[in-house]
């Protein structure tokens, strides 16, 4: 089993990243290691340049993201943690796959439409073709499984389509005349317990780094006072909490806060409502804030310690990149050979 997943270094991780993805990375690294498999987690810095960016900020964010991931429990000794830039095989394979990917496939990508908006002519070529780089990211390592959220399922399906077409068009034959696939078709992992954490200011929108209001999210770098303040000011409604989950229907903000409490406490929303049903938010919010402070304090302390040690962070990336390159080179060699390219 080989798992591959990436995250863009576009700023500090927040509670939604942690509960929706990073916590699952940590649990998967342990499960996969126990089976003798590999977990590869990368900082998608090549993807980051598909949109306007500040070079100094990107460099700083990449290191800070490494610190945050390690603070959350991603272990560089049990997982391969690296950034794309130090593994040039990602970009090489993307170019080779550009010959297989089709314009029609890319035009159908929902995120391309969303990010380009109405000014598609003004969008970068990298933004249009970055799903091909995403395909290269996983196919390069013969990934068997890729953890994805609902918003990334389409991109993994594209990666499978590209791999299947490449295999159909260019797979070499063995001594019996049978095709030898160049790429493994990765399967999605959609963790059933992955939490969908919404904005503290709008229960209908996901918690996001790009939200202009810092009060909309709990950053993993927030100190205890900041967390308590944000929870205290989180948007709610005037009604008390219901005693049953059905009573949260149509109450997006209340549902979000109860959901956050349940996930952080390792319990169910029903259990939370059993304890707090009939109570107002004046009692519930302080309890939620204290729970968040308790659970996030060790992550925050470890992050603050790591972020100032640039040498240690660079060493983690170098070590991970060396391991990643060793796994990437054989696949890239097979792709070049299958295409008839003389090196």
Q: How many β-strand runs?
A: 5
Written as H for each helix and E for each strand, in order along the chain, the element string is EHEHHEHHHHEHEHHHHH
Tell me about the largest β-sheet: 3 strands, parallel
User: Helix tally?
Assistant: 13
Percent helix range = 40-55%
**Shape descriptor:** elongated
Beta-strand share of residues: 5-15%
Structural class, please?
mainly alpha
Nearest-integer average pLDDT: 93
From the N-terminal CA to the C-terminal CA, the straight-line distance is 31 Å
Strand order in space, largest sheet: 1-2-3
Gyration radius, to the nearest Å?
22 Å
- Which spans of ≥5 residues are poorly predicted at pLDDT below 50? none
Polypeptide structure, described:
The chain contains 13 helices and five strands. The protein starts with a strand and ends with a helix. By secondary structure, it is mostly helical. Strand 1 (2-7), helix 1 and strand 2 (38-43) form a beta-alpha-beta unit. The radius of gyration is 22 Å and the shape is elongated. The model has no long low-confidence stretch (mean pLDDT 93).
Q: What tags apply to this protein structure?
A:
single chain; 343 residues; mainly alpha; two-stranded parallel sheet; 6% strand; elongated
């Amino acid at each position: 089993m080989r798992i591959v997943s990436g995250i863009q270094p576009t700023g500090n991780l927040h509670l939604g990243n942690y509960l929706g993805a990073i916590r699952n990375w940590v649990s998967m690294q342990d499960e996969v290691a126990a089976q003798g498999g590999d977990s590869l987690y990368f900082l998608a810095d090549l993807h980051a340049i598909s949109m306007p960016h500040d070079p100094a900020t990107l460099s700083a964010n990449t290191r800070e993201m490494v610190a945050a991931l390690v603070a959350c429990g991603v272990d560089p000794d049990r997982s391969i943690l690296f950034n794309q830039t130090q593994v040039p095989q990602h970009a090489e394979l993307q170019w080779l796959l550009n010959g297989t990917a089709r314009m029609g496939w890319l035009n159908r990508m929902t995120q391309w439409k969303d990010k380009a908006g109405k000014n598609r002519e003004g969008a970068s070529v990298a933004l249009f073709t970055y799903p091909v780089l995403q395909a290269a990211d996983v196919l390069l390592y013969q990934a068997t499984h890729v953890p994805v959220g609902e918003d990334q399922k389409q991109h993994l399906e594209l990666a499978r389509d590209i791999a299947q077409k490449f295999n159909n068009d260019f797979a070499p034959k063995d001594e019996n005349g049978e095709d030898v696939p160049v790429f493994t078709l990765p399967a999605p992992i959609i963790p059933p317990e992955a939490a969908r954490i919404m904005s503290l200011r709008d229960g209908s929108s996901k918690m996001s780094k790009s939200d202009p209001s810092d009060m909309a999210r709990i950053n993993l770098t927030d100190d205890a006072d900041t967390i308590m303040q944000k929870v205290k000011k989180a948007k709610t409604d005037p009604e008390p909490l219901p005693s049953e989950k059905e009573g949260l229907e149509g109450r997006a903000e209340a549902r979000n806060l109860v959901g956050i409490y349940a996930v952080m406490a390792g319990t169910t929303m029903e259990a939370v409502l059993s304890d707090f049903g009939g109570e107002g938010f004046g009692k519930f919010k302080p309890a939620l804030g204290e729970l968040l402070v308790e659970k996030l304090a060790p992550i925050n302390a470890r992050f603050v310690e790591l972020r100032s040690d640039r040498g240690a962070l660079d060493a983690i990336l170098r070590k991970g990149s060396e391991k990643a390159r060793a796994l990437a080179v054989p696949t890239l060699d097979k792709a070049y050979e299958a295409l008839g390219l003389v090196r």
